[in-house]
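Example record for the data management plan.
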Amino acid sequence: MSLDPEIQVLIDGMAEGDTPPLHELAPEDARALYAAMSQMLDTVDVPIGQVEDRTVGEGVPVRIYSPVAGSGVLPVLVFFHGGGWVIGDLNSHDTLCRSLANQAHCRVVAVDYRLSPEHKFPAGLDDAYSVLEWVEQHAGEIDVDPNRIAVGGDSAGGNLAAVLSLKARDEKGPSIAFQLLIYPVTDHTAEDGSREEFAEGYFLAQETMLWFSEQYMKPDDDWQTPYASPLMADTFANLPPAYVVTAGYDILRDEGKAYADALSGANVDVVYKNYSGMIHGFFNMQSVSKVSVQAVSDAALALEKAFSL
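Corresponding structural encoding:
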């Protein structure tokens, strides 16, 4: 399938601009650029029941969303934003979190984990796990069901969600009911396949992805450790059911599918969905793409269905 027409217009517009690639910027400048881009691409006004900013766990900022329709004890999605562990924040994914809360009829706890390179691996992962534990331990305080906790995220956030599922299983930690993995990073060392085919010109370049990994990991870290590259896990057995999304023109497409296949091969219930005409980051493009709007609704429906089992 060819590139989606609405996305093609976006790609053409970006190609005509003189914006430098993220990997050529200082992290603080890359964050500012991404924040501006997020405001441009995801301006949909999504009403929400309630939003609360607070600090939990080991001092991690979170934003708790309650849906427009729904009260009392609800299931919860603990959500981790994308951005290569370097950029992104609660605001960059605000529209997506509102949409998921309303359409899946759950609360969403969005996590503002520490970013690299100021805070190298595993700082962001530690923050993520800290919040997951807090949600389970304080479920009554925020009116969520401790037996219906899902984790999810996009890109680097999808990586964190997948790794949390491994870590919680390995350490007999919080019970995770479901994992929502949106074009997740599952292998820092991947070089061929979609990484090569879409290396540049499709929003997320391979050179930028490599830069993200280098910012996230310390020089002497093993990039293949499963808590950084979950596709390298020794076993995928006994992991939570999953909904794995990829984009057809994304360098992360093949490793996302490989992770879905690995879960399925270990008899984990998994639904894999590839949006063939889309690019990396399309879940945050609801204001410019009808497919993005539909994909977010599809994910919310999968989440709601998992919560009802």
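Summary line stored alongside the record: The radius of gyration is 18 Å.
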